[in-house]
């Protein structure tokens, strides 16, 4: 089995836990599933848990929809596919300015007007 095939089926996406949860509390919660290789936080409330064996993933999926008091989770979400929305690109505030490239526009500042919907 190649390294890539082996790594693709060894992780789960986890969300729904408290924002003050850390890697130690996540590791304690999923320790019963199998040996954890690493934990990668995507943001304060989403993470990816990598296991050493693919069988551990199926055990971790049993945590989906459960309450985990150790993680202060009302309902924990565990899945093998990425269910998280990508971070939205922030919109500029009304009344701000865009500085355009000097060669084309000679450093003109163009105001961004508020849009009314």
From TrEMBL:
Gene3D superfamilies: 3.30.70.330. It holds the Pfam family RRM_1. SMART domains: RRM (SM00360). Residues 10-83 form the RRM domain. GO terms for molecular function: RNA binding. This is RRM domain-containing protein. Keywords: RNA-binding. The keyword NADP does not apply. Transmembrane segments: none annotated.
């Amino acid at each position: 089995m190649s390294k890539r095939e082996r790594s693709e089926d060894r992780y789960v996406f986890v969300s729904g836990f408290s924002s003050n949860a850390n890697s130690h509390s996540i590791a304690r919660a999923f320790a019963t599933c199998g040996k954890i290789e690493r934990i990668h936080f995507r943001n304060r409330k989403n993470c990816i848990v990598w296991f050493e064996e693919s069988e551990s993933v199926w055990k971790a999926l049993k945590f989906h929809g459960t309450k985990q008091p150790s993680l202060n989770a009302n309902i924990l979400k565990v899945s093998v596919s990425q269910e998280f929305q990508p971070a939205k690109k922030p919109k500029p505030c009304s009344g701000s300015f865009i500085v355009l490239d000097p060669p084309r526009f000679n450093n003109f500042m163009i105001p961004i007007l508020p849009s009314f919907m």
